[in-house]
Design a protein that fits this description.
By secondary structure, this protein is an alpha/beta fold. It has one domain: Glycerol-3-phosphate (1)-acyltransferase (3-Layer(aba) Sandwich). It contains seven helices and eight strands, in the order αββαββααβαβαββα. The strands form two sheets. Strands 1-8-7-2-6-3 form a six-stranded mixed sheet, with helices on both faces. The protein has a two-stranded parallel ribbon with strand order 4-5. The longest helix is centred in the last third of the chain and has 30 residues.
Length: 228
Amino acid sequence: MSEQVPPVGLRFAEAEDHRTLYERSHRVVNWLGRSALHLEIYGQENIPQSGGALLAANHRNFKDIFFLPAAVERRHVTMVSKHELLRVPALGWYLRSLGAIPVHREGPTKSEMEAMLQKLKEGRIVASFPEGTRSKKRRKELHEADMEEFKPGTAWLARRAGALTIPVAIYAMDGPVRGWHGIAFGMPAEPPAHKKDEEQWTLDLHADIKKLYEFLHQQRTKSLLKSN
């Protein structure tokens, strides 16, 4: 079976039949993020313009599933969503129409992991939350990322697909609605070469996202100083 290669240059081409819906949704959510949340986006140049890639992000708030794909220009992002969300009538239709892959709350099954792997092999961008669910840790301060331990699935996907992984930090989505928010895309990481490398690769990914989160906190501090 040959791999599908989405057309290069056509905005959100990978969304296929739902490209118009995805493009309109992207425009609205992006506008809401910048106007209502004061959302700043960094590192767009680190996202490949073609080919399969993983976005690996920290996850603290329900809003992440909307604002992460909206932060990516030109390319469609395949999100991973819990089955429970897809059962909500309007929301479920919306997420399915945008190409979301359903996964179980307890963790993706083999068939769900294979569905994500297939998207990567087709040259798509797939968003992954390596913590497996929203972090339950309660931060005392915004500058603390306080991520949960990462699950091994992201490393497995990257190795099996041979895909680059872009670390992503999402800042303050669980904070005040009118406060400063940020999303930063880091330098792409090569996939682990062997299964024995996956554990260290996952630890390195955790550290990279934490550094990006700290960078976003610095940017927030600078923004607040300018506005005072």
